[in-house]
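ok trying this again, last paste got cut off
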Amino acid sequence: MADDENLTPPPGGAPEWVTMDGIVEGRIGDFTILTAAVRELNALGVSHFELDRDGGKFSLMPDDAQVPGRGFDEEGQSRLLQHLSTLAKGASGPVESTLRCTMVFAEQCAETLFHAAAPPPAGPGIEALTRVRPRQPTDAPPASPPALPWRKLLMRREVLIAVPLLLLVFSFMAWQSGLIDRLLSASAAGMTVDTDGFGDLLTAEVDNEWGNYLVTIRRGPGHPDTAAAWDELAAAATTESERLHRLVVREGQDVYVQLRDGRDEVLAEAKADLRALVTAADGEVEVRLPGRMAASKVVLSVTKHERK
């Protein structure tokens, strides 16, 4: 997973199991680069990486689930390091990293630590250090116990009684947790987008994403490109509402992305930070809203919805 001649290369081919854990932290340089790198990392399929933003800092954390490593061969391992180096390019200055990848092979276990290096352009920002050791019994998940023959299982009276009860309990839990609502959520293709008082300063697109709605906000055709144009637009405002909406976009403040039904009731809401649109003309901001069967539109608002 690394090119340093002093590092121990892992065995060839794809491992049986992969686990990612640890954290990468740093100061934000270009948030667009950071989000793009995280999308590529998640596309590898070895973990789900969460990118958190706190003021001017970011943190990247994978889930620590042990997943099958099929397909994660030398090329996939190389792409993992490449995307982490891209992540470092989006940081301002050096990053801090305790990120680790554990790969379990047939007879060996490779543990790779991704540690901080000189930041770009002087260095890659993140380097890999790999240690290979013999495989231990605890490295892989325990084998599943042999299943009972299905004919005998289906003939058991207890099963015939328990299955309907379990289905009833599962259905109730799925309804309570919102799982059914997400599985049967309205398609994003038929959903409208209302930029409200922002007019053509902003545009937004809605896509379906595994039971959620992915809302991507970008600059609109009416977004000024210069400070003079902003001043002219501010002077043309005739109401306090117009002044507020234009100020929020110009300064990259927070907006509230609301999912609403046909009666204009707010079903869900998420906060979006518009600073990425201030720093780059092609910047974009992504937020996720849970899927809902009754959803009909997405609205951008300067006001947080207060539940009654």
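PB: full thing came through this time. The chain has three domains: 17-136, 150-177, 188-301.
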